[in-house]
Write a structure and sequence with these properties.
Layout: E1 5-9, H1 13-25, E2 29-33, H2 36-45, E3 50-54, H3 62-72, E4 77-83, H4 87-95, E5 100-104, H5 108-127, E6 142-145, E7 148-151, E8 156-159, E9 162-164, H6 168-179, E10 185-186, H7 187-195, H8 203-217, E11 227-230, E12 234-237
Parallel strand pairs: 1-2, 1-3, 3-4, 4-5
Antiparallel strand pairs: 6-7, 7-8, 8-9, 10-12, 11-12
Helix pairs in contact: 2-3, 6-7, 6-8, 7-8
Amino acid sequence: MNNPNILLVEDDVELARLVSGRLRDSGYDVRVVGSGPDAIDAVQIQLPDLLLLDVMLPGFDGLEVCRRVRAQHPLLYIVMLTARTDEIDRIVGLEVGADDYITKPFSLQELVARVRSILRRIRLTQESGGANTLAKTTPNEILQFDGLYLDLTRREVRKDGQLLHLTVREFDLLLFLMQNPDRPFTRGQLLEKVWDIRYEGYDRTVDSHVQRLRTKIERDSENPRYVRTVWGLGYKFQSKDEE
C-alpha cells in the first residue's frame, strides 16, 4: 500500500523543512511548494490525499488557492495553516472551503497527530465505502428525511433529486447528525465525533461548517429546516418539519 501523499504549501523555507521532515519520518510522502501558483500546478500534476496550506503566500494567497482547488476537487481534504492572531483568516478560510485549520505556532507533535487523525478517518471512509466510525451502519444504507437523501455507499447527498457537492467534512457532519436525528450535540461533542479532535478553541470550525452545509442543503439557510441551532448548546438534525 502506498504511503499517503501530502502537499505542503509553505513559503517559510525553514518551517517547510521542519514540517516536511517530521511528516516523512512519520511515514508520509510529502511534496513542498512555496507559492500560490505552484500549489495549483502541484495539485493538477498529482492530487494529494491531504493539502496543508499556509495563508500567506507569494503569487496569490492560500485563501485563493483554497477557493480554486475546492472548485475543482470538492472531496480533497484541505487544512489551512494560519497565525494565531489572524482570526479573520481562519474564518474566511473555512468559508472558502477549508475543512479545518491549524494555528501557528504549532508543535510538530500536534501537527503530526492531527494529520494522522485526518488521514485515518479518510482511509476508514474509503475502505468502508462511506460507512465510517461515526456510527454503525449497513453498507447500503440510505438515510432519508423529507426530500434529503444521503447514500453512504456512494457518499452522495441529494436534495429533491439534485446532487449536492459536499466536502468530506461537510458530508461527515451531515452523516453524523442524520444518524442521530433530533438529538442535540454541543460543539465540543461534534468536534470529537466528526473531527476526531479534542482541542479547545475550535468552536468556530463547527459554526463555519454548519453555515456552509446549510447553504447547500437548506432552501433558506437563514431559516433552516434540517440542521437546527439549539440555543445555548449546539446543533441537531430535525427529522420532521415543524409547521
